[in-house]
Every structure is written in C-alpha cells, then in structure tokens.
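User: Hey, my collaborator sent me this sequence without any context and asked if I could get a structure. I don't really work with proteins. Can you help?
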Amino acid sequence: MALTPPLSLDQYQVSFWAVRGESRAVQINYSSSIDNQTHPFLVLTTTDPQFVPGVGELAVGDSVLITVSVDTSKIGVTFEPSGLQFGAPAQLKIWYGGAGGDLNGDGVADSTDAAIEAKLLGLWYREDGSEPWTKLGASQSIDEKSFTYALPHFCEYEIAEMLMDWSVGW
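Assistant: No problem. I've predicted the 3D structure and written it out in structure-token form, which is a compact way to encode the shape of the chain:
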C-alpha cells in the first residue's frame, strides 16, 4: 500500500516581524503532486500582538518576531513565541487539501475519508507537549478544504480526526 508522500511546502519554517497596530501576514504554499500546481497551505495575519512572555506589553508600533513551523506528517503548526497574546485575534487559515482526500492514510480516498472530513475532522490546540489536545470551534469549509480560526494567543495547532489517536497523513 503506497501512502501519500509528505506535503511539499515552499517553506517549512518562516519568520516575520508582527507590529502592533499594523496588519502583517505570512503565507506558506504547497506543491501538489496531483495537479503540479501551487496551492495555499497556511495564511496567518496579525494586527495586534499585545503581550510577549518574558517581555511584557507591546506599545503601538513595537514589534515581535513570529516564527511559524510546520510539521507536514500531521498537518501540525507551531507558532513562536509560545504564549504570545493578541488584543485583536490573529487570523489563521489552514488548508488540508494536500492530503489528496486520503484523510485516514490508507492510500485510498473513499467514502470513509468523506465521513471523516464531514463529521470528525477538526482544528485542535494544546498549550505545550505535556497538555492534552482540545478541539477548537474553527470554521470549516468542505469546498475549500480549510479551517479558519481567530487565534487569541500562540501555542501548537493541528488538524486531526476527533476520535482516533492519529492525524491526517500527507
């Protein structure tokens, strides 16, 4: 059984300066093995980084270096600095279409995968590796194969199936 290879991103880690009071965004794309085109994987937009752990409150115009790291083996994303808090939430949109429809990793996109997508797939978070995962109330678009969520703070996020102890395989 041949599983879908890991997602081919244009970047697996990217850093940018977020400035309080200014809109800043970063986008990471993937190359599809299905249609040989580039598609969005993640877009993060910030306007109001407010509190940085170890630094304190940011004044308007102050900045913080944000790093986005992607683990394609599980559609996981880590944002640094961990614990960064926002006044107005940062906007995250993450696409899972790169899984090619095979959401359970068995090498075949079928009705089981469609049921997982419609009923069980979700965006999850945890504060750190010692904490349990908690499902977020993210907005899912089946047509776009994406989740959108307003992030109040940074931690670890993952797209995963609700009841199993595995994540979507790429």
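In plain terms: Confidence is low (pLDDT under 50) at residues 1-5, 163-170. You can pass these tokens on to your collaborator as they are.
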